[in-house]
Every structure is written in structure tokens, then in C-alpha cells.
Write a structure and sequence with these properties.
Order of helices and strands: HHHEEEEHHHHHEHEHEEEEEHHEEEEH
Number of helices: 13
Strand content: 5-15%
Helix content: 25-40%
Largest sheet: 7 strands, parallel
CATH superfamily of the largest domain: Peptidase S8/S53 domain
Radius of gyration: 25 Å
Number of strands: 15
CATH architecture of the largest domain: 3-Layer(aba) Sandwich
Length: about 550
């Protein structure tokens, strides 16, 4: 037993070390660094404060930014004055006043809810594809497959192997952390009772008994845990982290990779019809709006009310379109969310989501084309898998099945506040030929439901920074179309000449310029100056 526990802890220490690879020591930066300017402030924010100084005295038009996400707390103290209102809809009368097919859609729409509730947890698309094809091919062999199904069968074989490998790995991880959590909790309670203390510290474990008693084993294990986590966390913090990690893997087994879990009945749509339009409900917050509210605050938290944080754009109304659960979003919902946003006046659609598999790409492609035809800009997070998007597909994508590459599309990676080897978020996807540029996405303060604020990181945070800068351009320079806005954002980036750790490739470094199309980070100040110069030249 002691040897097994020791082995478990050694593995735990190795896991922690692996998770720490590529993470910089925390560097003190201002809470609102996302608004600061590289040249003026020495911090790699978007330069929105400097841009507004340049634009002083001018009055912008209002830009509608649709947030396709988990929902938004529309009553949040820092957001409520910047929420889109459908003026043609009468609140709560149960009538589709504007005849757009959605009843009481005052602040947006929820495509993952129905009359009887809302979807919170959902599976990954990989799981759904595994379930869809299992019944068709589980008894099929290479020799017996119908020639017309050969391509799909090859896809199934790879999918089956990958899914079952991931599922088995998840079971192992869950068992590992569940057992470790129980072990630590047991010896924590035992030793606190024996020593009559409220909280165990490393100093309490210094006197080790030489025998093989349970007390000696417990001291050794807890001491090993403190050492494995760097000695900077309290035991209570270690236990909390273990509890969160155990829950993460438990949720994956219960929901993400559970082939028997399907919450779709609550929506009440015909899921097989990927082009079905009208379903859902008007609950734009949903059961957990944490992610969407954080995204929304980056775009447009009130800059003048002296509460919480300052968002990047002043001239914005936020439309909440709920389509992203805990788990993978469904293509049908994404397609309808894009169409809803376009039909209701959105100028920009922020899409801080993505997945590795797709089922209804035709519907999403059609919606992307619809947005392009109507002049709506799409801003998409590149993803947090530490992968090269030049070779790694993460849906939705700008390459459509009809051969067109959507020119209303911006793909965004995540950068940190300081220029050093850790400048690119260790989680961020990248791509010399796919990602347009980077934006702040590491240690970002923003809004959370119930008038709260918190820090988060991810390309999910970088995308709304770009959506906000695009909103400033569209607001102050209404003559610009979506393509001109995209081109200005590209040409006005701040180039960064630094060797950085390549995400997901331990020990590999590249110049930052090699990780995106432009080799730079978005900058509102440079963008508005360029737009202003172009505007003056055209007069």
C-alpha cells in the first residue's frame, strides 16, 4: 500500500510538472492591461485608451456585436447599459411582435433551450459522431463494407480508435485523481486529529517517525504532496485543486464522452433537420452564463461608470445568442445563431468556441455565406489546443465546401502582457497561414454573472478584444465595409520581434512573426489612425 501511494504521488508530481511547462512566472501587470498600448505604456494591450484620445470630440454610430456563447447576464451592473434591445418586441407578452419567428426575443435568443428548460451539459461532437456511426458500422469489416461507404467507413475506423483511446485515458485520469483526493483527505483528517491542530503545514511534517505506522505513512505522503506542488500552496488549496480536477474528469465521463447521454430532448426541435430555423426560447442568460458574460465584458463593459472593469469599445450594444453549452456546440445551433444575429442587425459576430469534429457543416457554411452577403464580420477564437491551425481543423472554419474562403472571417490567437519567451499563451493555437494575428488572452479581468468579476484566459478572451477594436473602427468610420475593416486590422498590427515558446512543442522556439499571417498583435490606435488617413485621402 505505501509503495502504491508513493508511486501515485510521483505520477502526480510528474503531471503537475508537465502542466506547468510553458507557463511563465506571474508578472505584475495592471488589471486593465488589455486597454493599454505597447508603445505608450509598454504593455501589449490593444491600445484602446490611446485610440479614444485620438478620436476625442468625434461621435460614433452604435455598433451591434452579437456574442454567440453560453449566454450573457444582461442585468450585470457593468453591462446592462450596453445590452441590445429589440425595440420591435414587447417584453413578456408571449407574442412574436416583430414577426421574425422568435417570441419575446428582447435581448437575443437561446437556441439550446425549450419550453421545459435549457441545455447546460452536452457531449463532444466526437462522441455524437461515434454514436451516429456505431450502429451502422459496428459489425462491418473492411472486406464487407459497401464501396459507396468506403470513405465514411475509413473515417469511422479512425474515429473509433481515437474515441476509445480518449475515453480509456479519461477513465484512468479520473481513477487516479479520485484515489489521490481520497488519500490526501484521509491523512489530512487523521493527522489533524492526532496532532490536535486545525490546519497542517509542511513544518508539522518535519518530525517523521521511523516506523511503518499509519501516522508515518501519512506524514510522508502529505510532505510529498507539498513538495510536488512546489511548496507554495496550502493543503486546503491543494485539496481544492484536486477536487476540481477530479470533478473535471468525472464530468467528462458523465457528459462529454458518455455515449448514453443526450440532452437534446429539452430543446424540442427535429435534430435530424440541420436547416430547421425556429426553435429555442428567449432565456439569453441560460443556466450558466459565466463564459459569455466574461466575453461580453471584454467587448463593452462600461468604461465610464467606475465599476469593475473597462471594456474596450464604448459604442456597442451586445446581442446575446445562446448556442454554446458545457461541451461542444452543435452545428445546427451555430448556423441559426449566425443567421439570427445577421437578421437582427448585428455588424460583428463574436465566436469564442470551436470543436474538432463537425456534423452539420453544410448548414454552418450556408450561414457564413449569409453573413458575408450581408456585410457582417465574423471573429473566431483560434482555440486552446496548443496546435498549428495550418494543419489542425477546428470547426467552424472559413473554408467552405463550395470552395469559397470566407473573406469576412478573422481568426485570433492569444498573447500575454509582456514580451518574452512566454508571450504567446501556452494554450493558444497558432498558424502562419491561418491565424490572422494575436490579441490579449492571458490573465484577462472581466465580468462574471451576478455583478462579479474574475480573471480568465484563452483565445476566447482574445477574440472579443478583436471584435471590440473592429467595433471602434466601424463606429467611427461607417463608410468602411467588413473587408476594409479586416484589412485595416491586419495592416495596422504591432509587429513583435521575439523568440517565443511554440505552444505544444516543448523546447521548440520560433520568432513570433512565424505564428500568424501578419506576425503581430491587434492595435486600436494604429487601426483608427490608418482608417482616418484613408478617409482623408478619399475625400
Amino acid at each position: 500500500m505505501p509503495n502504491l501511494i508513493k508511486l501515485t504521488l510521483i505520477l502526480f508530481m510528474a503531471t503537475q510538472a508537465t502542466q506547468a511547462v510553458g507557463q511563465a512566472d506571474s508578472v505584475s501587470v495592471p488589471k486593465d492591461w488589455i486597454n493599454l498600448d505597447p508603445e505608450l505604456d509598454g504593455v501589449m494591450g490593444v491600445g484602446s485608451d490611446r485610440a479614444y484620445d485620438y478620436l476625442k470630440g468625434r461621435t460614433p454610430r452604435t455598433i451591434i456585436v452579437a456574442i454567440i456563447d453560453s449566454g450573457i447576464d444582461v442585468e450585470h451592473e457593468d453591462l446592462k447599459d450596453h445590452i441590445w434591445v429589440n425595440e420591435d418586441e414587447i417584453v413578456g407578452n408571449g407574442i412574436d411582435d416583430d414577426s421574425n419567428g422568435y417570441i419575446d426575443d428582447v435581448h437575443g435568443w437561446n437556441f439550446i433551450g425549450g419550453e421545459n428548460g435549457d441545455v447546460l451539459e452536452d457531449t463532444h461532437e466526437m462522441t455524437r459522431e461515434y454514436v451516429r456511426l456505431f450502429s451502422k458500422y459496428y459489425e462491418t469489416t473492411t472486406d464487407s463494407v459497401d464501396p459507396t461507404d468506403s470513405v465514411e467507413y475509413k473515417y469511422w475506423k479512425k474515429l473509433k480508435s481515437d474515441f476509445e483511446s480518449i475515453y480509456n485515458k479519461t477513465v484512468e485520469e479520473y481513477n487516479f485523481y479520485a484515489n489521490l483526493m481520497l488519500t490526501v483527505d484521509y491523512f489530512d483528517s487523521l493527522l489533524r486529529a492526532e496532532m490536535d491542530i486545525e490546519m497542517i503545514t509542511p513544518d508539522d511534517l518535519m518530525d517523521k517517525d521511523e516506523d511503518d505506522s499509519v501516522t508515518a505513512i501519512g506524514k510522508g505522503i502529505l510532505n510529498f504532496v507539498f513538495t510536488a506542488t512546489g511548496g507554495e500552496l496550502t493543503l486546503e488549496e491543494i485539496q481544492r485543486d484536486l477536487e476540481q480536477t477530479e470533478k473535471h474528469y468525472r464530468d467528462q465521463l458523465e457528459f462529454t464522452y458518455n455515449v448514453n447521454f443526450d440532452p437534446r430532448d429539452v430543446v424540442g426541435d427535429d435534430y435530424s433537420d440541420i436547416f430547421q430555423r425556429y426553435y429555442g426560447n428567449n432565456n439569453v442568460e441560460g443556466p450558466d452564463a459565466s463564459h459569455g458574460t466574461h466575453v461580453a465584458g471584454i467587448v463593452a463593459a462600461d468604461r465610464d461608470n467606475e465599476l469593475g472593469i473597462r471594456g474596450i469599445a464604448k459604442n456597442v450594444r451586445l446581442m446575446s445568442v445562446r448556442a454554446v453549452p458545457h461541451g461542444d456546440e452543435r452545428d445546427k445551433d451555430v448556423a441559426n445563431a449566425i443567421r439570427y444575429a445577421v437578421d437582427n442587425g448585428a455588424h460583428i459576430i463574436n465566436m469564442s468556441f470551436g470543436k474538432s469534429f463537425t456534423y452539420g457543416k453544410l448548414a454552418v457554411d450556408s450561414a457564413i455565406m449569409y453573413a458575408m452577403e450581408n456585410g457582417v464580420l465574423l471573429v473566431h477564437a483560434s482555440g486552446n489546443e496548443s496546435k498549428d491551425r495550418d494543419v489542425y481543423k477546428r470547426y467552424p472554419v472559413k473554408e467552405l465546401n463550395n470552395g469559397i474562403v470566407a473573406d469576412n472571417w478573422i481568426e485570433v490567437g492569444a498573447n500575454a502582457a509582456r514580451v518574452d519567451e512566454y508571450f504567446v499563451g501556452s494554450f493558444s493555437n497558432y498558424g502562419k497561414n491561418y491565424v490572422d494575428f494575436f490579441a490579449p488572452g492571458v490573465d484577462i479581468q472581466s465580468t462574471k454573472p451576478e455583478d462579479k468579476y474574475d480573471e480568465a484566459q484563452g483565445t476566447s478572451m482574445a477574440a472579443p478584444a478583436v471584435s471590440a477594436v473592429a467595433a471602434i473602427l466601424m463606429g467611427y468610420f461607417p463608410e468602411l465595409n467588413y473587408k476594409q475593416v479586416r484589412d485595416i486590422l491586419r495592416s495596422s498590427v504591432v509587429p513583435v520581434d521575439v523568440s517565443v515558446n511554440v505552444p505544444g512543442k516543448e523546447g521548440v522556439k520560433k520568432n513570433f512573426s512565424e505564428l500568424s499571417i501578419t506576425g503581430g498583435i491587434v492595435n486600436a490606435y494604429k487601426a483608427v489612425v490608418e482608417a482616418d488617413l484613408n478617409s482623408k485621402k478619399s475625400r
